[in-house]
Amino acid sequence: MALLTLLRALGIGFLWIAFAEGVLAVLFWRFEIGGVGPFAFAAVATGMLAGAMYLSGQVARERTGLREALLFALLWWTLTPLVAGLPFVLQGMHPGAAYFEAASALTTSGAWLSDSAARSSESGMLWRALLQWGGGLVSVAFAAAVFVQPIFVGIETVPPRFMRREEASYFQSLGRALRFLMPAYVILSISAFIMLLMADASPLESATSALSVVASGGFFPLGAEDTPVRPLLAGLLLPFILFSGASFVIVASGRESWRARVGDKETAAYVTVIVIVATILSVFSGIYSAPDVGRNLFNAASLMSTNGVTLGEINNLPIALVAVVIGGSAISTAGGLKILRWLVIFRRVREELRRLVMPRAVFGKAVIEHELGVWMHFIIFTFVLGALVLILTSGGHSFELAVCAAAGVLSNAGPVLQLASETTDGYAIFENPILRAALVGGMILGRIEAVVALALINRGFWRS
Asked: Which structural domain, as residue segments, surrounds residue 435?
């Protein structure tokens, strides 16, 4: 086990947190925004810890395999919120609540304890959005370099150029993925920021929305219900919401992958399901005017990409939650089960139905390799979702609220909690520390993938 290499990699991640805290401290000082002291102190403290970890890991350069890569993913999502939540603690927030907020941001869940409190300060808004942006980039890099393996998704996808070679380290693949994906990620963020500014959104709203939307974080202001700014901003955000749930390998490849895009069944399925969900929402609303159809299209895209923010009233809660659970593309910032796995599942269902109708027929296509991994992920995801609902309802909460919360955290689409008929300002309604710990566990599990979590608790995996 390359433990020193893991320590060094975590140190690099913590250095990014320290750098982000330092940049915000300078910006807050320059524009006279509150929070300079807490962010400056957090940057120094986190930087010292990160530097010590990095230097300790420099003594050895060990080759890392799949075990180290999966363990690093688990450690990243569980330990990084400790340092990312430090500015919240220094501003007076309870350490447990600070960890919850930081984990919610880094996993791009957007499951804030209080939506109004999350938007109450400029420093809090920017820090949450920046954590979402960084967490989204790390998520898509992990997906592209590690989780896109056929043993996890059950099917061969568009092969990224940075996929690990036999002689290389998984950490090297992760670094190549970050370098390959970051330009497109940054360009999308800057484009969203400029477009929102041009639409007369404030710099704070534009920055927060632009950082969050590409990460499928769902943390962006859309204005009041009765003002014209809301539909305008929704229309501007829609393309970026769609991109957040699409394959970033296809987006980042540009012209190089035009052949891959033509044959990319995952993206085609992603767009098709969005149209289907939007159509169903329109049918149940019974209103087919252009503004309402556009609103339903926005809602469908937001749910499928697990941004989770919706406009107006959703008349069919089950369809909305199913869309969130389906999720986006495998190599995207979206959560959920992912489109690729659903393609494998429905292909198997189709084959079994054909065999049932024509039991003596011989079909030409071979059995899907690594299909077991998909079914294991589906079973674990379903089991954890049910367990979360049971835990939350046992805490005295309604079934509808529990289902929305469980689907929201496990699919990293926290804002869907607002779809419950029970009025709530956020996840602070779950006051029991055990319930909050379960919710944080759901967010982290949604990011490290259920089948990966199963491997991490398997003794045979560590002995191999």
From this structure: 366-459
